[in-house]
Amino acid sequence: MMTKDVCSDEAQQLILNEGCSIRFIEDFYPTSETVYSYPHFFHAWKKLRAFEMVDICDKCVFLDADIILLQNMDELFDLYDNISFAAVQTCTCNLKKISTFPESWKPENCPYTREQYSNNTTHDNSHANVIFNAGLFLFRPNLTIFQQMLEALNTWDLTEFKFAEQDFLNKFYHDTWTRIPFIYHGIKVFSKSHPHLWDLSKLKTIHYVNAKPWQKSDEGNVEYEIINRLWWEAYEWRSEKK
C-alpha cells in the first residue's frame, strides 16, 4: 500500500519481483494544527486507507514498512478469528525522555514495568498508558468502519493526536481492541526498556522505530548494532538471491 510518489518505478518492480502486490492509494491528510511528536507522523494518516480494502480479504495484518519478519506468524489469523481489531500493547517508558512524548510516559507508569502485562487476549484499559502501537495490527477491512472513522476525524479534536493515526486508532478502539502477545511486534526499544522480555528466538518481528538501520549516520543507531545487523542480513540475503 503506497502513494505513487513514494518510490521509483525500479523500486516498485523490485517489490513486484518478490511476489508482492502493490495497491496505490490517494493521499490522506486530515486538516488540523496538530504538533506531532515527530514531523513525519503527518504522513501516517494514510494508513487508515487500509480499512477501505474490502476486496482483498475479510481479515488483514497491517505492518509498517520498517518491520522485518523473523518467523512465520500466519497463526494470527486463526488465533484471533472473532475480533475486529487486535494489536500489541506498547511500552511507554520513554527512556530517552523525548520531550514531545506525553509527560506520563515514564518507566513507573509503563504497564510492562508495573507487571500488568499478560499473554491472555483480554484487553485491560485500567490505566491511561495501556495503549497499542499501530505499527502492526490485525483488522477487518470494512467500509462502514472507514466511514465512521471519517466522521470521527471531522468531529474529534485532532490536535490531541500527537502520534497521528496511532492515537486516533487507540481512541477509536479504546474499549474494543484485543491485546496480543508482544512477540508478534518486537518494537526495538523493548530490548532496552524491558530486556527480560526481549528474546530474539521467540520474536516474530522487529519494528525499527525511530532511527532506521539504513540511516547509518543517525546516532540513535549506536546502541542497536546487533538488532540492526538482522535487518542488514535480511537485505543482503535478498540481494544475493537476485
UniProtKB/TrEMBL annotation:
Cleavable signal peptide: none
InterPro entries noted in UniProt: Glyco_trans_8 (IPR002495), GNT1/Glycosyltrans_8 (IPR050587), Nucleotide-diphossugar_trans (IPR029044)
Its EC number(s): 2.4.1.186
GO molecular function: glycogenin glucosyltransferase activity
A single GO BP: glycogen biosynthetic process
Pfam families in alphabetical order: Glyco_transf_8 (PF01501)
Family per similarity comment: Belongs to the glycosyltransferase 8 family. Glycogenin subfamily.
Name this protein carries in UniProt: glycogenin glucosyltransferase
